[in-house]
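User: Structure please.
Assistant: Input sequence and predicted structure:
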Amino acid sequence: MDDTVRWDWDGIRERTLALRARRGRAPLAAPLSEEQVAEAERQFGITFPADYRAFLTTVSAGTDWPRQLCRGETGWYWAGDRQTRPALLAEPFPDHDTALAASDDFWDNPLREEDFEDPAAFRAALAAWNDEAEAIEDARTAGAVCLTENGCGFATWLVVTGPDRGTMWFDGRATCDRLNPLLTDEGRPATFGEWYLDYLEHEEPYATDEERSAAHSRWHRGEDTPIWFRWFDDWREQVSR
């Protein structure tokens, strides 16, 4: 993605604070300084996409949407994040279909206990197999940060390295084993700025849980669905019509 694009974050902190106050949610964390963001980038060995970096320094370090970037005793981390692998952030986000094929090949060949004469040998092989399985799944999100949990095992990722850098992806592995780019109306992967501002514009009109629930029902039917809700492959078909 083109880092020359600059997003106008003026007034977005105030709008987000008002929305969270109306919903009874915790207030936003303060923005980070340029020095703090640069320190985090040095730790991870990357440079954040420009719009996410500007969000961190202008709007907020985050809350739960997106997760807060924090500094603890051992360095920088995203609060509540158990999925991002910091050691893999500098590696390019992989081509999805290639990574999926590697995952499928691995899972299609599980170990069988009957192939081992010694139970202890099977247990040792199984432990190594499980470690390899975890590494293969982690490799599918190398070069990406898990910015939100969507419930039911789903999550949303920001790609920070590789050809897809700067784009937002939905992790649907809990049901369909795929990661899909979250698409704009034009059918291209959304940037962080597009994803966040579209979220805010769709959430601001609804003052009550009942109104928001009704909006969710419409979004499920494909009516004015926000970018963050465009989870699965049929959005590719819809935007190409």
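The chain has a mean pLDDT of 87.
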